[in-house]
Amino acid sequence: MSFKPVVLWTALMSLAIASCNNQSQETAAPADTATPEAAVNVYSARHYAVDDDLFASFTEQTGIQVNVIEGKSDELIERIKAEGDASPADVFITVDAGRLWRAEEAGILQAVSSPVLDEKVPASLRHPDGLWYGLTKRARVLVYNTDTVAPAELSTYEALAEPAWNGRICVRSSGNIYNQSLLGSFIETVGVEATETWATGLVNNFARDPDGGDVNQIQAVAAGQCDVAIVNHYYWARLAKSDDPENQEIIAQTAVFFPNQADRGTHVNISGVGVVTGAENRESAIAFLEFLVSPEAQQVFANSNNEYPVIEDIDIDPVVAELGEFKFDEVNVSAYGRNNPEVVKLVDRVGWK
Ligand SMILES: [Fe+2]
């Protein structure tokens, strides 16, 4: 088997790797010099095979080894906390700004500044103090049944709370971070009271109790159990690319609508990355973050999970491109987490299960 720069490793093995392979650690330059260390340790809650290829490409270009531990977001945060000063983690990657906020709250991220990151990542898609940066963008869209809904009937998230939609809406549970972040953006824009009024109307219009994930909501729309679902765009794109005749039927029966195009834009979320507090390989970590927003890396992200790149001039996936261009809500995504405690109370009050 050929040499594979990206390895999954246990905490114990990482120590062995660091002491055997990494000469620069022994003659370590001060952390604030520009000399890159020879390794970067990444804790990632993104699970895509292409990420490994991408990290290998970073190693080829820079000589910096990338070591990856994959896990669930909350578990990785707990792990970094538990490891404390001894944690080998330099970089934390996760999906959803709400989860980045959890990392922020846990104190595991440090502020970094980089002209490259500031220039490439739009201001609304990164933490205002540089605790984390968006890598990819996903839109929370409406998927509707093309037999029962005309696109002209659709406009905004807000309109879905109106009586015309009674018994016609499907959306997953409020325990899911995607919905919590949508509500967090609402609170940031219109305040708690108006958000609560909206959520009350929306819950009243549910076709059924929340059940399953975003794909299940799309299936329910196609099956006529509801007319409109609120879901992340890439789930629809994934079904559209499937050869399975059942999925093809679902796609033939449904279409995607970007809400709020006449006002603030469609709600977007990110997968994102931050440098871990006390990172031994801080300079390598920043170089790694800069690589992740390079055209090469952004192109790989755009092609892999049907997401949108955060930088401009990248060819997006053809199926996603067919959905059309859209205006996205430029409220800073860091608001989602900040408003999350209020959201959790609010969904309880309005009975969104
Ligand atoms: Fe997802």
Describe this structure in words.
The protein has 353 residues and is an alpha/beta fold. It folds into 2 domains: 6-136 and 269-316, D-Maltodextrin-Binding Protein, domain 2 (3-Layer(aba) Sandwich), CATH 3.40.190; 138-266 and 326-350, Periplasmic binding protein-like II (D-Maltodextrin-Binding Protein, domain 2, 3-Layer(aba) Sandwich). It is 43% helix and 16% strand. It has 15 helices and 11 strands. It has helices at 11-21, 23-26, 49-62, 73-83, 97-105, 115-120, 177-204, 214-222, 233-241, 245-253, 282-292, 295-304, 318-321, 334-338, 340-350; strands at residues 7-8, 39-44, 65-70, 91-95, 109-110, 133-145, 169-170, 228-232, 254-257, 268-276, 308-309. Strands 1, 2, 3, 4, 5, 6, 7, 8, 9, 10 and 11 form an 11-stranded mixed β-sheet that branches. Helix 3 (49-62) links the parallel strand 2 and strand 3. The longest helix has 28 residues, at 177-204. The termini are far apart. The structure holds fe (ii) ion.
Overall structural domain count: 2
Q: Which band does the percent of strand residues land in?
A: 15-25%
Mean pLDDT over the residues: 90
The total of helices stands at 15
Task: Report the CATH superfamily of the largest domain.
Answer: Periplasmic binding protein-like II
Give the name of the CATH architecture of the largest domain.
Answer: 3-Layer(aba) Sandwich
Q: Give helix and strand order, one letter per element, not per position.
A: EHHEHEHEHEHEEHHEHHEEHHEHHH
| Percent helix | 40-55%
Distance between the termini: 50 Å
Based on DSSP secondary structure assignment, what is the total number of beta strands? 11
The shape, in one word, is globular
Bound molecules: fe (ii) ion
CATH class of the largest domain: Alpha Beta
The major beta sheet can be summarized as: 11 strands, mixed
**Which spans of ≥5 residues are poorly predicted at pLDDT below 50?**
1-34
CATH fold-level assignment of the largest domain: D-Maltodextrin-Binding Protein, domain 2
Class from helix and strand fractions: alpha/beta
Cα radius of gyration in angstroms: 21 Å
